[in-house]
Amino acid sequence: MAQKKYLQSKLTQFLREDKIQLWKPPYTDENKEVGLALKDLAKKYSDKLECCENEVEEIMEEIRCKAVERGTGNEHYKTTGIATIEVFLPARLKKDRKNLLETHLHITGRELRSKIAETFGFQENYIKIVINKKQLQLGETLKEQGVTHNVKAMVLELKQSEEDVRKNVQVEEEKRNEAKLEEKRIQRTKRGLEILAERAAEMVVDPEATPYLDIANQTGRSIRIPPSERKALMLAMGYHEKGRAFLKRKEYGIALPCLLDADKYFCECCTELLDTVDNYAVLQLDIVWCYFRLGQLECLDDAEKKLKLAQECFRKCYGENHQRLLHIKGNCGKEKVLFLRLYLLQGIRNYHSGNGEEAYEYLNKARQLFKELYTDPSKVHNLMQLGFSAQEARLGLRACDGNVDHAAVHIANRREELDQIKKEEREKKKRLENINHLKGMGYSMRAARQALHQAAGNLEEALKILLHNPQLWWLNDSAPESNNRQQSPSQEKIDQLVYMGDAVAAKAALRVFRDNVQLAAQTLVHNGGRLPPDLQLSAEDSSSTPSTSPSDSAGTSSASTDEDMETEAVNEILEDIPEHEEDYLDSTLEDEEIIIAEYLSYVENIKSAAKKN
Q: How high is the pLDDT of residue 493?
């Protein structure tokens, strides 16, 4: 298959160079049948390529037929408005994977999915459609989603099936149930990520702590994220991690929609952030790798662009010749795995595009890196005997050029560094929990932070400080000039407080604490039904104080209508977030080794034929 794609690309190049249009005479007659001139042209190109003449003629006939079909489709679209979509079927369908489907563009995505399922023998709820690198939205029309005439549509199956599945009614029922489970699984993924992103967005009051998903630099320390981008970033990272989890399990059809969603949300983040970390570059590699493993690389018309983007992101993140990375981490052995994948994909893309020399150059780079990064199983075993995991052993050996003793020291030191970082993160998380606890009691964010600072993080001491220093309650999160003037307290709230003191004291307390009954009550109880002297004067001018109540800033989230389901969705996401922060750098390289050898053999066959010529 790969060799045929190479021949197709080379022949297409020759046709362009020679300015030959196969859909016109003398290669196509008036009845749109093949002309005799095609055979002569096939012989010319087969001699040039040192290939079998019949094989070249067969491929050129396929190119001609496709060109004729496209021309016919263009004329038909102009006169009727009926568009042609090129449908790419899953790899398990060995033949006729590319098919043409005619449709109006005003139909919905659901109607197109149904049409594809009926035409090509799928179950409607068992497939997903990807067009223009996006999942087809079922509720929107094709035109609303930017679908145009001659667009490519890729069909993804949620799971591969046996050839005789449709012959067995019982298996067919199991298949439907599996499809429903997979669809629910995908919906849970989306809901779980939305919940985590919403929680992250609620925590913008303290950007130093992110207890769920986090983005870190090369040292493993968290990076501060602008509040406006936090939710998009959390969704991008969450979808990427979920997609990577499916990639590890080789569930490419489910992985791709997650990766494409991650790409969409990453595009909502500023370029300065994406240049700081390698997440976005790794995602581009994962997307191209997923298309390749699905056998649908030709559906990704911007594969070259994505690979160049990844290379440029790595350069900005790691520095020229990895200098920035070497300065920060002292080595770049682990990150070379990413470059091996990059060079391999660049080699594959060039081969499929008919660029044999460029393909050999990149594939040879990948082969050299593989030799450098190969980890001796006996060395991995020796490190595991010291109590390290296989993943730590591989990463450590690559960081230390295969030296076992150095790798053991490196892993131990890295464990200590990460333990310290995790300790700091736990302290930040605890601090945030204490702040939210005080906010839940009605105190403002600023008051809670200042009290906790004075109490060295002790929650009980912070509460005592707030009770004995009511002036702290005046600290408000909003700028005074951005708030409206406070209206007089309502009679209902005054009546609630009268039993703790007289009406004048109750009204004054409500004014001081901006209509917050809870804080006003605490103050009156603590001071025997009266306001402290330092707050009595403030009460007279409280109308000019910010109108937002401290309790209003607590940001309490609404109760979930189905808490158990939300918890399940979140837990399912968290299960796929790897514990090791360098998990994305760890690979056995078993698949890469096989693919490098396979494509190098293709390219070397071309080079051998060229030498004979």
A: 64
